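[User]
Um, tokens okay?
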Amino acid sequence: MMLTPSSNRGTKRRGFTLVELVIVVLVIGILTAVAAPKMMNTATNARVSGTKQSLMVLRDALELYRSQNGTFPTLANINTNSGLMPFLSGPFPINQVTTANQVATVVAGTSPITATVGTAGGWSYDVANGELRVNDASTAVANPAPVTW
């Protein structure tokens, strides 16, 4: 028996229809639109988490210094061997959330602390009460208080 072209059409399907392909592309597009923002923000979240951890380490070191010496370290010796360095394992932590250079410098702050405009990142420190915050000079004009956690 020989098959006619009309009966052959329903039994041998070799590809996808245009509608099926469009549906698959739409589903992939929706999944990408939902997942991409979460994946793209991973680096920022890592920098924020690292800076929060560094801030906690520095604050713990400040409390250890104060418990041994009775006062907080001065601005001049905070990141030296006569300051916090004996209480830290490794180099002085870096502020990673600033848009400027990621540096480990400490700038003087006032009480209450305000970000130092023109200073490229680092930490803001109040010698009087030992308060330490992230100094983000790029946002100092719009938001005079530096990042605090």
